[in-house]
């Protein structure tokens, strides 16, 4: 398995001979206002041939129409059903609905969808478009969990427990977002993971490695692009799972061999 951090929630995932791109956003600004502080780790035009795109929800930092317009349309674009139907109406005929608790296959890879705890609607008036997904990718020998955007709940790890633990398999890679909000924004954790929450979820998932994302890309209104990763690095100095966390700078990749029996 090879995991490349492009930036924010955009990762290039390669397993089972299949290439996935998650939540593609190569924009220079978020919402035409908030600047990108680092270029994509892999330029859009330099991407290798892709086999599928995974879209978790409709927020502008995860769904960039400008990026989708430059990506191939002869591969499936998996998304929550309400988002996929919207994309189809907008002309993205390759958008395929993947409901929660269902599975799609691309080559040797099975894609399982689950419900993320995150209000993902694009605008203030489109609450019906608020569905957000997380995905578990697996072959017979490898597995990778991509959480999209979610908060920490008692159910966040259930997609992995149902699909892997129930058949006596363990998770290889946990790709989890990290975020930071000041004390005066208490609602942040209702739909996001802090660095501490991500470590807690990693421990619950019992994965071999944790790769954090959602940092180092865009400057937000209430936080800089590096607030969350600075705090994660500080905690990891004394954390018992330090050795299992791999922090990838944009453009860096992790090669993860299948676990030995």
Question: How would you describe the overall organization of this protein?
Answer:
A hairpin with a 2-residue loop joins strand 2 and strand 3 (18-22). The protein is 16% helix and 25% strand. The chain is built from five helices and 15 strands. It is an alpha/beta fold. The two termini are 17 Å apart. Strands 8-7-6-3-2-1-15 form a seven-stranded mixed beta sheet, with helices on one face. A six-stranded mixed beta sheet has the order 9-10-11-12-13-14. Strands 4-5 form a two-stranded antiparallel sheet. The protein is globular. The mean pLDDT is 94.
- Specify the number of helices: 5
Give the helix level as a range of percent: 10-25%
Pairing-aware structural class of the strands and helices?
Answer: alpha/beta
**Overall number of strands:** 15
Largest sheet: 7 strands, mixed
Which radius of gyration do the C-alpha atoms yield?
Answer: 17 Å
Q: Uncertain regions: pLDDT < 50 for 5+ in a row?
A: none
Distance between the termini: 17 Å
The pLDDT mean sits at 94
Strand content: 15-25%
| Multimeric state | single chain
**What strand line-up does the widest sheet have?**
8-7-6-3-2-1-15
Principal-axis shape equals globular
**Helix and strand sequence:** EEEEEEHEHEEEEEHEHEHE
């Amino acid at each position: 398995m090879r995991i490349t951090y492009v930036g924010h929630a955009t990762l290039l995932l390669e397993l089972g001979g299949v290439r996935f791109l998650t939540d593609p956003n190569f924009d220079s600004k978020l919402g035409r206002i908030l600047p990108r502080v680092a270029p994509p780790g892999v330029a859009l035009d330099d991407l290798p041939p892709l086999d599928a795109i995974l879209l978790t929800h409709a927020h502008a930092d995860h769904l960039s129409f400008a990026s989708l317009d430059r990506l191939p349309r002869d591969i499936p674009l998996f998304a929550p059903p309400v988002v996929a139907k919207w994309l189809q109406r907008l002309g993205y005929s390759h958008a395929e609905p993947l409901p929660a608790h269902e599975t799609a296959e691309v080559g040797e890879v099975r894609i399982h969808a689950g419900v993320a705890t995150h209000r993902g609607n694009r605008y203030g008036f489109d609450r019906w478009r608020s569905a957000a997904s997380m995905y578990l990718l697996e072959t017979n020998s490898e597995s990778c969990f991509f959480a999209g955007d979610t908060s920490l709940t008692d159910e966040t790890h259930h997609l992995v427990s149902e699909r892997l633990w129930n058949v006596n398999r363990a998770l290889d890679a946990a790709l989890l977002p990290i975020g930071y909000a000041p004390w005066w924004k208490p609602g942040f954790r209702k739909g996001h993971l802090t660095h501490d929450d991500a470590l807690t979820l990693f421990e619950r998932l019992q994965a071999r490695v944790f790769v954090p994302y959602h940092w180092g890309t865009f400057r937000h209104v209430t936080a800089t692009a590096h607030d969350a990763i600075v705090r994660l690095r500080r905690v990891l100095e004394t954390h018992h799972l330090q050795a299992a966390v791999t922090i990838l700078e944009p453009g860096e990749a992790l090669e993860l061999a299948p676990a030995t029996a």
